[in-house]
Design goal:
mainly alpha; Tetracycline Repressor, domain 2; 0% strand
Length: 272
């Protein structure tokens, strides 16, 4: 059991699980917009997420040497390095415009992590900004990049799906912020810190209602009732995770279960 737990912890800590969530949303974008299977963009998103998330999580440790590198951390660094090479490999298989947009998303990620401006903290520590930057990055990687790389026309459905995707990621991050409420620096001014847990949950429920309502505005709504039902199911599942979120929950509540929502959504598409 100890070995299985170590493997599972490595799976979570090395960001493979969150990368699968991103990969799933890329596949959902291809499904929604009838894009032929695009392995380079999906794999680029998968490996790029591993590199980006691990850079955000472990960069401060590597630069300040505050902790002695454990074996597990060394493995994560090695895995991240290999993922970086894979990201570069798939990057050069993308369309030129896609490459340019992906560099923009990368810049946003670096802004989130590194202090670019003198005497200023990185964007991760800017009051109230974190949740918006992360949500925008997810929309950029999982929706904008696949659409641009496919070369299909940008219609009103693209903007509707962008708002939907932003809302879903935003609400999932709210769950993280509720669990981290007792550990987050008060100066971060996360949503729960500013309006309280109860109002944060009510905000999440309201946003999920908008998430469902936007599906009614899709151009192919009449021919895609099943997908509306799946959207409602995902909204209900996410709202349940939000409802039962509190500071005493295990770290796996968010790092595994809540982050499984996009994977579950993609899986249900295959079932139905």
């Amino acid at each position: 059991m100890k070995v299985l737990k170590k493997v599972f912890d490595f799976y979570i800590q090395s960001s493979i699980h969150v990368a699968l969530s991103v990969y799933s949303l890329v596949q959902m974008t291809c499904f929604m917009f009838h894009i032929p299977e695009d392995k380079p963009i999906a794999n680029f998103a998968f490996f790029g997420t591993i590199v980006g998330y691990n850079f955000v999580k472990y960069d401060s440790f590597a630069r300040t040497n505050k902790v002695q590198f454990r074996t597990s951390l060394k493995l994560i660094i090695l895995f991240s390095a290999l993922s970086f090479l894979a990201t570069g490999f798939y990057f050069f298989q993308l369309q030129r415009l896609t490459q340019m947009v992906s560099i923009g998303v990368l810049s946003l990620t670096l802004l989130y992590t590194l202090p670019f401006f003198p005497n200023r903290k990185n964007a991760r520590n800017w009051a109230g900004v974190k949740i918006y930057i992360v949500s925008l990055c997810w929309v950029g990687v999982t929706l904008v990049l696949p659409i641009i790389d496919s070369g299909i026309a940008i219609t009103s459905d693209f903007y509707l799906k962008s708002i939907q995707r932003f809302i879903l990621v935003f609400v999932l991050i709210l769950i993280f912020e509720i669990l981290d409420l007792t550990h987050d620096d008060p100066h971060l001014k996360t949503v729960p810190q500013q309006i309280g847990v109860k109002r944060t949950k009510n905000l999440g429920y309201f946003l999920l209602l908008i998430f469902c309502a936007l599906e009614l505005l899709n151009s192919n709504f009449n021919s895609n009732i099943t997908h509306l039902l799946l959207v409602i199911i995902i909204a209900i599942i996410t709202s349940l995770f939000l409802a039962f979120a509190n500071e005493k929950r295990s770290k796996y509540y968010t790092s595994f279960w809540a982050e499984s929502v996009p994977i579950l959504w993609w899986f249900m598409v295959f079932l139905f």
